[in-house]
Amino acid sequence: MIQLKNVSKYYYSKGMIASGISKVNLTFDIGEFVVITGESGSGKTTLLNVISGLDSYEEGEMYIDGKETSHYLASDFEEYRKKYIGNIFQHFNLVNSYTVYQNVELILLVNGYSREEIKKRVPDIIRRVGLEPYTRTKVSKLSGGQKQRVAIARALAKDTDIIVADEPTGNLDSVSAEGIVELLSEIAHDKLVIVVTHNYDQFAQYATRKIKMHDGNVAEDLYINTDAQAVYSDSGITQMASESERIDKDITAGSKVRLGVRNTFNIFPKFMLMLVVFLFVVFSVTSQYTTFRNQEEEEDKLGYNEYFYNYSEDRVVLKKTDGSAFTEDDFRAISNVSNVESISANDILLDVPLYIEDNEFSYEVYPKSLGEFDEPLVAGRLPEADNEVIFTAVKDDFDTGMLERILEKSFKINLGEDKELNVTVVGFAYKPQSSNSFMYSGDLFASDQLMSTMLTETYNYNSTVRTSINGKEQQYQEGNAFYRIVPNSHVESGKAIASEEINNFYDKGDAKGKTITVTAENIFYTQSVDLKVSDTYNKKTFEKKTGVSDYDSNNGTIYVNQADYDTLFNKGNFQASVYVKDVKEMDQTLEALSTMGYVTLPLKDILINMFNELTSIIRVPMTVILIVALFFIAYFVIRLILKSRSAYFSILRMLGLAKRNIRRILDVEMLLIVNIAYAVFLACVISVNTGLINIQYITNLVQYMRITDYIVLYVVLSLMAYLISGKFARSLFKKTAMGTYREED
Questions:
Q1: Residue range 309-328: average pLDDT?
Q2: Left if phi > 0, otherwise alpha if psi is -120 to 50, otherwise beta: which for 656?
């Protein structure tokens, strides 16, 4: 039973208030066929919309089975319409892009029926309203009478206690109208049927009650055709079915997906427009991101690092996780890694500036292995002896007229305090200029033996050297000869010759035959050797015992055998560098090297660049602003596209579908289009990478993209689609179902 007590409904428009219905008191029972008449504007449609829950009311109270509804929210009225109301609208309110079958199916999907149940019920209902030949015909191609029959079929499929019909014959010819009236009369036996019409005579022989509205008030309420009423009410039912008897199922997840997918492709022009919008977003975000990455890469080349001379972006410094020295097996394994171009075993020499010089010439050079030399010789020849080298310099810095000055000439290289090497330059080549090379520096390509000697002296120079004499530890200090360790051919292996001043460390003043321990410690290793003092020297005996003439500069030096010296400092390579072929594949290379047990340091990631840091601060908010701007651009365009379908979503509301379910259908539609747009984007990427297409714009886009970037892009697009869906769904529910429909109609 439905009861209205002093119910009033008002409309607000541009500051004006108009009364729809005023102080209406009515009661309706199951089994009645109620016809509401009145002139246009009398309030009959407003009354019908209030009864069916399509419109709210401002005053009074409406009871459903004795329960008050004044506290109902929009969601409560949606649930009420879903359970109790079957609507038949004057303008049909069908989905024109759906077939007859799909329109009837829609109401069953909304009410949670399974596909099997739907397949059984829908054909029977369509047959009942006489539309079986039009089952697969789109509603847009039907006549007015046929459309109204579809609307009735939809109401029948819902199988609710109440059928409300607003001018069901208003747009039909007399023959079609008569068929609709008879059809309504057939379904009115065990339901409450309420019809609003201008033409009462069409329904007179079937009506059990006539209500006439005038100026928003009930002007007449007559019970008529009692015989018909007795037939309709033969069971004596005056109350709607209880909730325990009612099928109360929600739309299934599968049905939401089904409707979302159907709506995506149902109107192809709409689908294409939305696809273009999301493709625009995909390519815009990617284009901006790759532009930033390109700028970042160019700015990185302007950076520097005070610890490394050669900080080219393709260089990766390696150490072994266990801290041990590299072996030939290590280098062979590394060379087999994909994307590794070359290996520099003597890594620490790459960042140690040396000078080749004589009395008239001096030039800064960085030593490299002869095996790394791959430039064409400008003059001279390749080295043949261990002390022969190739010298390279930047072309703009070195005049070929100077070649006579350096070729086949001997130069010395200072490796530290009082440690020199003599080399002969036998070849010259131009050094490639790079953005991170110093203009006034060259490279010196030397034999492995010479490189080993330089590496040994580099370890010496960069080590803390301590000597333990009779339990007292003495540390060598640069600039002072005391406790400096120097190899000497006059010393036997395992022995040492030291200044006689170390005699003072012993009680009897004699260090001969005593054992001293020399320890070298640096960032790579700690190494000690025990040496027996075989002799001591003073100023008179110095040259005889050591073969060195300059006593004053070397007094305090501890002379050892070359083998013991090598034990301390000739330890091999604890650090190496690899150069990659493609910097864009650096991450995969680093991952492969890490898996093999190496600690990696890509130098491109440790450059200091104040300009880059400044632009990064600006770049992050710019990216956020761009994404937000794209979101609103996409939202407003998509909203315009979806606005053409607001009537569809309003129909879903009228049929009782809750906000959350409509939102999920929208989510499916948006996310499906995003996935298609993203798939198109990936297809373009794959086509470019495989050479199927050659579009420079797309090539430029994808060259900076990594796997993580594709994942982030997909997440951003999905989130954007989800937010657009939510924002549009909220706009749909700002008004009542009828209010939204009127606005979009």
A1: 87
A2: left
332: closest CA among 142, 109, 578, 43?
A: 578
Would you mind telling me the total number of residues written for the chain in this entry?
Answer: 745
Chain mean position to CA 450: 51
Q: Which residues contact 147 (CB under 8 A, 6 or more apart)?
A: 92, 94, 139
2-13 sheet: strands from edge to edge: 16-28, 2-13, 59-64, 67-68
CA distances from 449 to 343, 452, 462, 488, 572 (A): 18, 5, 20, 19, 12
- Both tokens of residue 118? 């739907």
667 three-state secondary structure = helix
Q: Tell me how far apart the alpha carbons of residues 106 and 175 are, in angstroms, rounded to a whole number.
A: 28
- Taking the C-alpha atoms of residue 676 and residue 668, their distance in angstroms, rounded to an integer, is 12
Q: Which two tokens stand for residue 255?
A: 């049905």
Quote the distance between the C-alpha of residue 497 and its chain's center. 68
CATH code of the domain occupying 2-249: 3.40.50.300
Q: Are 422 and 410 in contact (CB under 8 A)?
A: yes
Can you tell me the distance from the alpha carbon of 565 to that of 75, in angstroms, rounded to the nearest whole number? 88
Mean pLDDT of 133-158: 90
Contact 180, 152 (CB under 8 A): yes
Strands (E) located in 53-184: 59-64, 67-68, 85-88, 162-166
With 50 as the cut, is the pLDDT of residue 477 above it?
yes
Largest CA distance in the chain: 148
Give 530 or 586, the one with higher predicted confidence.
Answer: 530
Q: DSSP state, 657?
A: -
Q: Please state, in angstroms and as integers, the Cα–Cα distance from residue 199 to each residue in 87, 164, 210, following that order.
A: 19, 16, 12
Residue 391 near residue 365 (C-beta atoms within 8 A)? yes
* H or E stretch at 388: strand 388-394
Does residue 563 sit in helix, strand or coil? Answer: helix
pLDDT for res 235: 38
What number of other Cβ atoms are within 10 A of residue 204's Cβ? 13
**Residues 2, 51: contact at Cβ < 8 Å?**
yes
CB 228 within 8 A of CB 204: no
Give 206's contacts (C-beta < 8 A, 6+ positions apart): 33, 181, 184, 185, 188, 225, 228
* Residues 548 and 307 sit within 8 Å (Cβ to Cβ): no
Residue 739: the pLDDT is 53
SS3 221: strand
Architecture field, domain 303-343+574-608: 2-Layer Sandwich (3.30)
Sequence-distant (≥ 6) Cβ neighbours of residue 338 within 8 angstroms: 585, 588, 589, 592
CB 46 within 8 A of CB 239: no
Q: What is the predicted pLDDT for the residue at 126?
A: 92
Boundaries of every domain in the chain: 2-249, 262-296+612-744, 303-343+574-608, 354-442, 463-569
**Higher-scoring residue by pLDDT: 726, 351:** 726
Assessment of whether the complete model's pTM goes beyond 0.70: no
pLDDT tens, position by position, 512-527? 999 999 999 998 999 9
